[in-house]
Amino acid sequence: KMLGSSTERTSGSPLLWTATRVFWTLGASITRTRVEEGGANRSVSSCSFERAVTRRISLVEKQGSKEEGKMLGSSTKRGMTRRLPSSTTRMRMRMASVASERRVLVSTTTSSVMRIPHSHDASSSSSSSSSSWRRRKRVVGRPRPPHQAARAVLDGAPPAADTSSSSCLDSDSDSGKPRVIIAGGGIGGLCAALALQSKGIPFTLYEKVKEYKPFGGPIQLQCNALESLEAIDMSVARQIMDLGTITGDRINGLLDGKTGEWYLRFDTRKPALKKGLPLTLVLNRYVLLDILKGAVKPESMTLGKRVESYEEVSAEDSPTGKAFVEVRFDDGSKTIGDVIVAADGINSTVRKQVRTRGNDEATYSGYTCYTATCDFELEDVEKIGYQVYLGNGQYFVASDVGEGKTQWYAFKAQEPGIKDESGDVRGNLLELFKDWSADVRARFEATLEEDIEQRDIYDRRPVFNWVKGKVALLGDSAHSMQPNMGQGGCQAIEDGYVLADVLSRCNMEEGDGCIQQALNEYGRRRCARAASIHGFARSAALMTTTWRPYLGSDPYSFYSYIPGAMQFWSALEKLKIPHPGKVIGQVMMMVSIDLILEYIACGGPVSEEDRVKYCQVPGVGVPKRDLPKDAFKMNGIPGFAE
Q1: Lowest-confidence segment of 67-81, 203-217, 601-615 by average pLDDT
Q2: Do residues 158 and 129 touch, judged by C-beta distance below 8 A?
Q3: Which of 97, 100, 183, 219 is positioned for an S-S bond with 307, CB 3.0–4.6 A?
Q4: Edge-to-edge, what's the strand order for the sheet holding 180-183?
Q5: Of 511, 469, 474, 519, nearest to 496 (Cα)?
Q6: Residue 111: partners with Cβ closer than 8 Å, 6 or more residues away
Q7: How far apart are CA 66 and CA 592, in angstroms?
Q8: Residues of the chain by 3-state class (helix, strand, coil), percent to 5
Q9: Residues 309-338: what's their mean pLDDT?
Q10: Using one digit for the tens of pLDDT, what is the confidence trace for 422-449?
Q11: Which of 137-146, 163-172, 590-599 is predicted least confidently?
């Protein structure tokens, strides 16, 4: 009030103009503070906020005391008998007060998390957050103007939640942000919706199913995905981490399928500890979808509608004089928006319209996959996370998923479209893996026949153009990959974060040219990384086509036409001479595995300003596993190590 009245009396004062901008900066910074359910998630770090305020105060001080003296003098002449603190002092007092309030806010929302000091640390949510704030989060209302939101926080009250409809058809939207239509409500679509929601970008998500139902088994979420989820919505990330089963702090690696001996052990803790990221975990897919769906505003989702096609309408052809995109659905209805996000899976209908040239069909990997979750635990489950058993033309993957259960995948090289309808899939798998490790067979035996599912594995050839006009591909529609690296869903989550980040800088009041620039930046930031991880996933499958533990193991089929050849190879195998391919492969893996894991885990797109660091020191920030110091060490000469 004092600043306002003084400004009216001394309009044009450089000092007061600067002071006004200080408070404007304060209001804008506080307005950008997002209060999410279960706690606060700051999009602007305290350090950046304090530096901005310090720079403004320094600028005021450099203006000199001359103007300030004039202001105080004129105030005294008007009858003020008490000398007020200087404007700089008042601002410092107010900054200290606000900083104190922000520290109290952060401390109350991070009581359950051990944190590492970091210059760009953002506050996390906690289940112990104020219940009154939770109630306010559920209130639906139009956002306050920036100055009102800032005043509310200064007065000690949390800002009101958004109560306006976020539908793309909301013609009254004055956010200046592009209206986004999301086709598909899987992991990628829901994460994109959450990311847009956190940035205040209006959107509507359309999903073809009329109701979400439990399906599929557990999914692995690695460090990079959890980092992106934290940056998108801290409360959602905390729910996922609370419900997931951590496997990233145990021994993981590759084994020989038949002998069960370790081929390579790797430490997935290293990249997490290096960058301060949450440890890799597994969580049931339907639980993950339920958490994500529950965090998206219901009025921003429409179920039972599948996007069938779209058409871009130029400003010249638009009745309003503004360009837009018209979307048609399978029921004949239409809607309009400024951007379309194709998150409708590997067989995306939107992608077919985006990429019309050449052969753009999904590629068969050469493998069919059997999968199930069974009641099984290894004796050393506290030490072992997931294991990949290698074989020639087949391989087996198993992971502990908590609560005494194991999820497994059995891959078999065969032609596509061959469905096992014998009624005894488990028996056929036991026959297929009859010479394999006892631990592999034990998992089959612990599995119920009706729980086994089969599907052929497809991916898509990497492309380096995900954008056409105002349409962007996301998730499996852009980079469908084989499950060997556990990165399909993780990369979709990264996509959602980057897409919202670039669109948040669009201002539609300046024209829609910013949309094209933003989408092009999205493609530049995502294409190369997704393509490289896609390549890792394909390479992992190719290993099994050449895998042979010993000379003479699994001879090529043409040897059967050579008299005595098969007997020769069988005798040679008994000598257990390591196959040269296995030796070279182990050397290469031992040299490169840490670099690969670090690139996947630490190479994510989250900016430093959005980073949230955790204390992941075993025994301090996370439970400590009883692992020996040399648990991850391979003993012996590379190529012959065990």
Answers
A1: 67-81
A2: no
A3: 183
A4: 301-303, 203-207, 180-183, 339-342, 471-473, 467-468
A5: 474
A6: 126, 128
A7: 65
A8: 45, 20, 40
A9: 93
A10: 999 999 999 999 999 999 999 999 999 9
A11: 137-146
Phi, psi at residue 286, to the nearest 5°? -70, -30
Q: Which residues does 52 contact at the CB level (< 8 Å), separation at least 6? A: 25, 29
Contact, 154 vs 1, CB < 8 A?
no
What is the helix (H) or strand (E) element at residue 411, kind and residue range?
A: strand 405-413
Query: What distance in Å separates the CA atoms of residue 635 and residue 642, rounded to the nearest whole number?
Result: 5
Residue type, 269: R
Q: Does the pLDDT value for residue 413 go beyond 90? A: yes
Whether 488 shows a pLDDT value over 80: the answer reads yes
The token pair at 566 is 């098969």
User: What's the whole-number mean pLDDT along residues 179-208?
Assistant: 97
Whether 601 and 486 have beta carbons less than 8 Å apart is answered as no
pLDDT band of residue 622 (cuts 50, 70, 90) is low
Return the bridge partners of 76, or none. none
Least Cα distance to 191 among 149, 225, 223 occurs for: 225
Residues 426 and 445: their CA atoms lie apart, in Å, by: 8
Q: How far is CA 63 from CA 57, 70, 122, 424, 567, in A?
A: 10, 13, 34, 85, 94
Contact criterion met (CB below 8 Å) for 289 and 304: no
Coil, strand or helix at 439: helix
Residue 101 tokens read as: 């309030």
Regarding predicted confidence, which is higher, 222 or 105? 222
pLDDT of residue 373: 95
Return the minimum-mean-pLDDT range out of 98-107, 151-160, 201-210: 151-160
Cβ 118 vs Cβ 613: under 8 Å: yes
Return the SS3 of 603. coil
Tens digit of pLDDT for each residue in 445-477?
Answer: 999 999 999 999 999 988 889 999 999 999 999
Q: Which two tokens mark 165?
A: 């409809």
- Pairing of β 203-207 and β 301-303: parallel
DSSP state of 540: H
346-378 pLDDT, tens digit per residue, is 999 999 999 887 778 899 999 999 999 999 999
Q: Are strands 307-313 and 324-329 parallel, antiparallel or unpaired?
A: antiparallel
The 3-class secondary structure across 251-288, one letter per residue, is EEEEEECCCCCEEEEECCHHHHHHHCCCCCEEEEHHHH
For residues 254 and 262, give the distance between their C-alpha atoms in angstroms, rounded to a whole number. 6
* Segment holding 477, helix H or strand E: helix 476-479
Q: At what angle do helices 285-295 and 234-243 cross, to 10 degrees?
A: 160
